[in-house]
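quick one, two chains, predict together pls
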Amino acid sequence: MLPPFNSEALVLGAQAARAFIQTHRIAYAQITPDLKIGLASDNLHALLAEPAGLSQHRSLSECLDEFVGAEDILHAILTGAEPSYSLEHVNRDLPDGSIMYLNFRILPLDEHNPSDGLLLVIEDVSDFDRLKQAIVQDRNELRLAKVALENANQELESLNRFKSFMLSMAAHDLRNAFNVIMIYSGILRGDPKPDNPHLHRHSLDMIDSEVEWLGMLFNNLLSMDQIEKARLPIQFSKCNLSALLQNILANLEILASVGELQINFKVDQEPFTIEADPERIKQVANNLVGNAIKYTPKGGRVEISLRQTGGRAELKVSDTGKGMNAAQIDHLFHPYYRTNEAEKSTIPGSGLGLFIARTLVEAHHGTIEVASQVGQGTTFTVYLPLRQPREI
Amino acid sequence: MPVIQKKICLLGDFAVGKTSLMRRFVEGCFDDKYLSTIGVKISRRTISRSSGEIKLIIWDLAGGDEFTAQSSYLHGVAGALIVCDLTRLDTMAAFQRYSAQVHQVNPNAPLVFLGNKVDLTDERKISDKNLQAASSAYGSPCFLSSAKTGEQVESAFLRLVEELEKVP
């Protein structure tokens, strides 16, 4: 038996629903079984703020982008397979630059007969979602700040390790060099007799060679500091590469004579003028030739050649040293890298020379290559442009 | 000429630049200010193709925690751009999660991977090799993009359109 019809209760219910809808900024529309817009509440256009094209009998997905691709699930609601479909926190830009947030919900008009059509309910939840957005914004900014802090921390730790390592390496190399100087100066002090010229000469050569090495070490440490601070100054000017190399070879002559090495230098033109920073190129050549001299066994040979090829200067430094394998070559230009053999040897080295050489060559828009064979020797080839490219 | 509507989604962790990529693609502009998205922002752009016009309905979804709560956003998705921030390694780890969520709804949806913020060269943490390895696991193309400069943004979206056209 049906309950008695009570119109007063219906009117009251309708008034309560209207009050609720107005208070909560809710709009609604009927969706027909063929997914077109039917009847709608008066405030639908106002609530959506962008009502162009939203009209009765038009397809829902044509009027509202939110429902493009949603046809399957809407049909599932019409067949009773799905109870409803919700889209929450849909952003809409307002003309004043703020964002309106809407919740969309689609459910059957009559849950007992879902195929009769659907009800679209749209609620403006901007007040709540703006608060939520502010919280999410703060949280995400904190997370980003944390990531930035972690990165900065890692960089600082790496820098700290770098400094400690550099200090210990420098201390180690300086101590070795000073030990050698002290030994030979002691010999000179204890052997004042001029009748042993060979020992006298050898001691002075050893002291000179260590002083030369110390000079290179200081230059490298200074360059490393500048590279690290990204303020490596390069002053381009016209320089005679051939004269510069001959000057370096003269300075390294003592080191070569200690190792009883044969040094050959070939150049295909005089003067050999390029646009470069002479001090920096001197440092590159010093490192390459200095390494070749240090790591070539007694009686070996170091060959330096300079020629022009393909519009570039080609500087080759070859030695008859122990050579390196492919794995060693892979790491050769990394800062502080020294081969196991070099580490075990008494030959001083910081592992910075080749890293610095490559950095300086690249700062000259050049390249550096290495070819080596174990037991045969090593060749470094530097290519430098004759003229530096002009920035536009 | 027929107009086909396709729903595509931009997915990725928070602050990887999804909203900026969408703005660059739709409006051709960029704003440095970071504004977290909650929910979804829907934009559209129509692309002319030889086969007709394709109206892209682009869903820019909130990243990270906000997204996981709202899988209904993916209903009817035809394809997706999955974005990571090249300066944050952890944002690439989420590729797998977002790809799985898209394919759960539409197993045939083509994906395009984007390593965004390529202009921040000094801060980069994800290498080309890592990005390619992650995208090739899905047989999907990947792009190094910058919403700031516009680099590869258009190409990435158009590539997704090409992939959508291949889907029967």
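The radius of gyration of chain B is 15 Å.
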